[in-house]
Amino acid sequence: MEKISRTKIVDLLKREDFGTMVNVKGWVRTRRDSKQVNFIALNDGSTINNVQIVVDLAAFDEASLKEITTGACLSVNGVLVASVGSGQKAEIQARGIEVLGTCDSTYPLQKKGHSMEFLREVAHLRPRTNTFGAVFRMRHHMAIAIHSFFHQKGFFYFHTPIITASDCEGAGEMFQVTTKNLYNLKKDENGSIIYDDDFFGKQTSLTVSGQLEGELGATGLGAIYTFGPTFRAENSNTPRHLAEFWMIEPEIAFMDMTELMDLEEEFIKYCVKWALDNCKDDLEFLNKMVDKELITRLQKVVDTEFMRLPYTEGIRILEEAVKGGHKFEYPVYWGCDLASEHERYLVEVHFKRPVILTDYPKEIKAFYMKQNEDGRTVQGTDVLFPQIGEIIGGSVREESYEKLTKRIDELNIPMKDMWWYLDTRRYGSCPHAGFGLGFERLLLFVTGMTNIRDVIPFPRTPRNAEF
Ligand code: 4AD
Ligand code: MG
User: Fold this and answer.
1) Pocket residues: Cβ below 6 A from ligand 1
2) Separation of alpha carbons 331 and 216, rounded Å
């Protein structure tokens, strides 16, 4: 076959220079046969749209077409022509077809309309489906939106370590990292494992958050953000939890709670608007196939002001709801950690818009949050979203060395390991604040997908590390 340089289908479908010889490469989605012609729908992942290849049977012998089956990989030379029946402006009249990779009938994606559960079992192939193509293209676009937002605001992308010796959230949900021989562990007289001879000379884990090191960056560079993988060994088998997820954590010197909430709101709206502006084809597909309210919901979030209210107010509203007969699975009382059903009640039923809840009881939040005068609450801000519940967790940080060390003591956090963190409060301490956005929770929102396992290519969850 003559060598013609390849055109991506996304570019080809925009062209109008009909009559030109072109080459496309991609995978067969469907093949439809009639007496004189075959129609092949070819997709190369560059867009949700397929290009139609028209194969004139008079010009090809049947034997050579036998290998053009669903899933096969083709290189096609042909003439770009205007299309009437394909739903696109352009299609290709085939002149030469080379089968780059055959695909037999054991290919799991033969017919359309597989369940999400089944597609998770073939996660190595699901990027070839319409839905996952759309989701993973949008995942890329959201990552670009995030970098664009912070870059344009003068934040610096700061790389925090993945292997760490500290537990930022203090929840003890860490995956250990070791090169020790697990069959022959050295222990002291109390039966505790000795880590002196481990790779790092101490006990280490995969990070649950880059925040603590992010604060070191912010108290030098002024404003930073991290964007990287995060690991939590929480045994939560829910549609919103992953053991390995990606988090974006901006950290900003001299920022107070109002400014923090302004930033959280502006940031999410920017990302959602980016999706509306840059992912039109994929969004329209997801709106049609996955969630008919999707685009309306996205537009609404961009257009409405988020509701801001203290946790105590939120609890009062939830208690009223219970009195009024609303049934929650988990009890509501001042001091409880809100479950996603509570968060969604506030957002979807009561306020009908995103909510930023503030001033949580200190007992249910991490040690680093700035303590309020009342001695009971801290300046934490959770952003709650329709369908999702908590999408962002953030706070103003406690900048007082005395208050911070007192809290660390109360919680029995090993002080010795925190010396470098405490130095920020010892040397030129400054007011500062930051937040963490769960990247996959944002993706759940912008794609309309309902299970977090379906917005990351290869999900890691309890008892599942396939692929
Ligand atoms: O609320 P979290 O635990 O906050 C922190 O980690 C802070 N250090 C952030 C900061 O202030 N810099 O987590 C932040 C966000 C949550 O709101 C949620 O969106 C997401 O991370 N998240 C998860 N996403 C998927 N799977 C999990 N297991 C998650 N845990 C948290
Ligand atoms: Mg949280």
Assistant:
1) 168-169, 209, 211, 232, 234, 241-242, 245, 247, 249, 390-395, 434-436, 438, 440-441
2) 39
Ligand 1 center from residue 182 Cα (angstroms):
31
Residue ranges of the chain with pLDDT lower than 70? Answer: none
Nearest-CA residue for ligand 1 atom 17 is 392
pLDDT in tens, 80-114: 999 988 889 999 999 999 999 999 999 999 877 89
- Using DSSP's 3-state secondary structure scheme, residue 79 falls into strand
Query: In sequence order, which ranges of 18-99 are alpha helices (DSSP H)?
Result: 62-65
Rounded Cα distance between 285 and 400, Å, is 51
Cα dihedral 73, 279, 238, 161 sign: positive
Q: How far apart are CA 221 and CA 223, in angstroms?
A: 6
Query: What type of residue is 247?
Result: M
Structure confidence by residue, pLDDT tens digits, 249-279:
999 999 999 999 999 999 999 999 999 999 9
For the chain, how far is it from start to end, CA to CA, in angstroms? 36
Query: Measured from the CA of 232, which atom of ligand 1 is nearest?
Result: 28
Check: CB of residue 1 under 8 Å from CB of residue 77: yes
Cβ-contact 310, 372 below 8 angstroms: no
The string of DSSP letters for 197-242 reads: TSTTSS-EEE-S-SHHHHHHHHHHHSEEEEEEEEE------STT--
Q: Using the 8-state DSSP alphabet, how is residue 6 labeled?
A: B
Query: What is the token pair recorded at 234?
Result: 């929480």
Q: Whose CA is nearest to atom 26 of ligand 1?
A: 241
- For residues 202 and 213, what is the distance between their CA atoms, to the nearest angstrom? 18
Instruction: Give phi and psi for 319, each to the nearest 5.
Output: -65, -40
Residue from 238, 247, 252 whose mutation best tests the ligand 1 pocket (most atoms within 8 A of CB) = 247
Tokens encoding 109: 């994606």
Q: What is the pTM of this model?
A: 0.97
Test site for ligand 1: of 245, 255, 260, most ligand atoms within 8 A of the Cβ:
245
- CA nearest to 318, candidates 301, 290, 304, 337: 337
What whole-number distance in Å separates Cα of residue 325 and Cα of residue 133? 43
Residue 349 is given by DSSP the state I
Q: Where are the alpha helices (DSSP H) in 33-189?
A: 62-65, 116-121, 130-152
According to the model, what pLDDT value does residue 123 have? 97
Name which residue sits closest to atom 25 of ligand 1, judged by CA: 241
